[in-house]
Amino acid sequence: MSKLSPLERRAALTLAGVISLRLFGLFLVLPVFSVYARAMPDATPFLIGLALGVYGIGQMCLQIPLGMLSDRIGRKPAITLGLVVFAAGGLVAALSHTLSGIVLGRALQGMGAVAGAGTALAADLTADENRGKVMGIVGVSIGMSFLLALILGPPLEAVAGLPGLFGLTSLLSLVAIGMLWLLVPTPPRLGASHGARFGKVLRMLADSRLAVLNGSVFFLHALLTASFVGLPILLVDALHLPVARHWLLYLPVMTIAALAMGALLPRMRDETRAARMVVACVAVIGTSLAGMAVAGASALVLGVAATAFFAAFNLLEAALPTLVSRLAPPALRGAAMGAYSTSQFFGAFVGGAIGGIALGRYGPHGVFAMAAMLSLAWLPLAAWGARRVVAVDGVAPAA
Length: 399
Fold this sequence. Notes:
By secondary structure, this protein is mainly α. It contains 14 helices and no strands. It is globular and about 50 Å long.
């Protein structure tokens, strides 16, 4: 397997920094939001879930347009535009005194839909055989930002409150813009200014393998968002663990999960093995969600189940976009990653809504039970997709 070139190494590390800064701000609110939101005057379980998931609406609507825009005007200008909008949404949420106002700010944050263009930029700067490594580096950096956010979110909220956390997301977004232009290499233009037309995009997305990958990331982020509707409340109500001490669970869970991802990622070197690993990860996620649903007041059961969940989640976060970038035509890669990210954040919206409904009707354990049932719909899709990838991968491409 070839080593990363100096340009690829620089691209991977600097772009990972840009992406992680933005996501660190988003992740900061996850471990505290549902507990904090319960005290707001207009709070309902559904509105709590909506506030977590509404971010996905703007992402869902604008990922493909911004991905296509990045194919035309370049990745960096499109990403910059999205980061500015994202920063504005954080400011709106920080200045809001009601949960409804936070919903508005989170929706505006979601309109800064740069995930597809950012992933396409990573793909532009790497050779095909090294793309998995670069996505792995980005995935590890996201996992580390997730870990740090879960640990630092509660004490930062104690100091600055939830408005302070939202304000910090805006500041980090502006820092990310500086890093993007000063540190991240600029890829050569692929000549896609006339290639990313809507008809060609639709024909590309008709590929059943891409459709399965888009469906998979929908389920993945629906389950993640639903889980964070219930998890902080479960830790407080069932385990009687104060918010400021939630890091006692998150630190070992996320550390072990990151090590597991690092050990398994090299096994996903080609499309066939990656597709089979996806199926295994889906099974692990469904089982771990069921474990969290029946954990009761057992910290051990909850910890083991959460570790399995986040190990599989982190692995899929690296594997799925790598597969999309390999299967999409280079000139349409921004649009392909935009479609992928649309599915991802639509899943976040649906997961937040489902989690809020389940929380109101069945409590925090019911959130995980409903998420486990949702994973049963994902498993056959992933299995069928793996068979499609294997079947196509075994056929030599036409000359």
